[in-house]
Design brief:
Helix content is about 30%, strand content about 25%. Strand 4 and strand 5 form a beta hairpin. Helix 1 packs parallel to helix 9. The chain is α/β, with parallel strands linked by helices. The protein has 3 domains: about 210 residues, FAD/NAD(P)-binding domain (3-Layer(bba) Sandwich); about 110 residues, FAD/NAD(P)-binding domain; about 110 residues, FAD/NAD-linked reductase, C-terminal dimerisation domain (Enolase-like, domain 1), CATH 3.30.390.30. The mean pLDDT is about 95. Bound molecules: flavin-adenine dinucleotide (FAD) and 1,4-dihydronicotinamide adenine dinucleotide (NAI). The site of 1,4-dihydronicotinamide adenine dinucleotide has 27 residues, from helix 6, strand 12 and strand 18. This is Dihydrolipoyl dehydrogenase. It catalyses: N(6)-[(R)-dihydrolipoyl]-L-lysyl-[protein] + NAD(+) = N(6)-[(R)-lipoyl]-L-lysyl-[protein] + NADH + H(+). Its cofactor is FAD. One of its GO terms (biological process) is cellular respiration.
Length: about 475
Amino acid sequence: MSYDLVVIGSGPAGYVCAIRAAQLGLKTAVVEKRKTFGGTCLNVGCIPSKALLHASEMFEEAGHGLAALGVKVGAPELDLPKMMGHKTDTVSANVNGVAFLFKKNKIDSHIGAGRITAPGKVEVTAEGGAKTTLETKAIVIATGSDVMPLKGVDIDEKRIVSSTGALELDKVPGRLVVIGAGVIGLELGSVWRRLGAEVEVIEFLDRILPGMDDEVAKQAQRLFQKQGVKFRLGAKVTGAKANAKGVTLTVEPAAGGEAEQVQADVVLVAIGRRPYTEGLGLQEVGVAVDERGRVTIDDHYRTNVPGIYAVGDVVIGPMLAHKGEDEGIAIAEMLAGKAGHVNYDAIPAVVYTQPEIASVGKTEEELKKAGVEYNVGKFPFTANGRARANLATDGFVKVLADKATDRVLGVHIVGANAGEMIHEAVVLMEFGGSAEDLARSTHAHPTMSEAVREAALAVDKRAIHI
Ligand code: FAD
Ligand code: NAI
């Protein structure tokens, strides 16, 4: 079988790349070793986690939020199998959607493990061991990432789980200990707390959400604590032993000191993800990887071996589905002789907790470090009419604009629906817009998004409602 392009991996980076390449007339195949398409994101990541985040949020609303609006529903009852069923149906609809899109775009799919045997040759090993070799002009590696293991804490996906196991628990743990106060820890910790678990998060650093704007992370931590999540910062887990009663963790101060034992019914290990290249044959064909195991690429997604490219979680950059998708589109366009492009300065990041946390561009700390002079405009949701009506006044919007040019360099939002609101900032930044541009754009009233405009007005100290 001979192709213009073979994509290895059908996650957001791979499947989107294949579709765009097929749209542009390239004869394209995808190799996927999972039984379903869509990668980590659709099968065990973005999609199932959001199904459980939404369902658990509804459960919490029914229990606490609705009464304050004058809606009495009595104590809600959890039907966990039904909630998990909703998650499974959501995943199925999405992964089947990708299969449909492959057919529609006449993309050949090969289920099996892909291995590059030479430039232009991908060997596919099916489950039963049968091997097929695909010949191709170009190969795109989009094999994604996998859970980062923690020494001394063996994941069994029952008592000591990764995100995958945490999406599958068959009962609500009495006490859940999360290792890592990053995105997964906070999202999945929130799910199980809402459903009744006592949740403690153990984090190595002295802050949560490293990489996010400091002020945003601090505010978020306060809000999570108010919801009942406990944080143990500046602490490291050095061992975990599962037994009949649960799990006993050994925890030490990050800086060193006396060890302590912490009990849990379930432990979620969420200390990051690492690039996945096992069995791909990279060493044999001489594809270079960096010190963290990421496939090394240039700014055209080319590896050091001609004809082999890489995109998504397996390469440098934030491990986000939309970053991978955009890289997939860019490389497909380049392979078809067009000018593919990703603007790495305007990639949003969203934590889908309640409230949501959304961010694009630089944080204050990054600007300070780079010596860039900036103005800050801030606006709290307590001063927004729609937020009051919705009882969603937690959080704020912060706009960071270049002091000399007023160009927006970063926008950070803590608030309900922050993940939807951030996109006007993304588009603004994509067009190199200023705080003044945002401030002069009419925003419908009453909307939460008015707070974004007010924060832009606040850059020039002329917000109306504070
Ligand atoms: P992947 O999605 O990991 O796909 C790679 C695919 O390649 C896999 O299907 C794998 O089976 C296949 N593969 C690997 N090796 C081979 C081989 N040799 N042969 C054949 N196939 C192979 N990101 C967001 O942007 N938003 C979110 O809300 C979000 N939520 C997440 C929640 C969780 C719990 C997790 C774990 C991740 C989440 N992410 C989220 C991150 C997101 O899932 C990843 O950034 C994204 O999936 C990366 O896409 P990818 O295509 O690079 O790789
Ligand atoms: P993460 O990198 O977001 O957070 C890991 C956390 O663990 C960090 O705070 C880190 O300091 C801490 N840590 C590391 N080693 C530790 C140790 N030994 N003990 C205690 N703490 C330790 O990684 P996470 O949450 O596992 O997520 C993995 C990736 O998946 C992220 O890169 C993220 O981008 C992606 N993802 C994205 C989501 C989204 O966009 N909403 C949702 C879930 C995951």
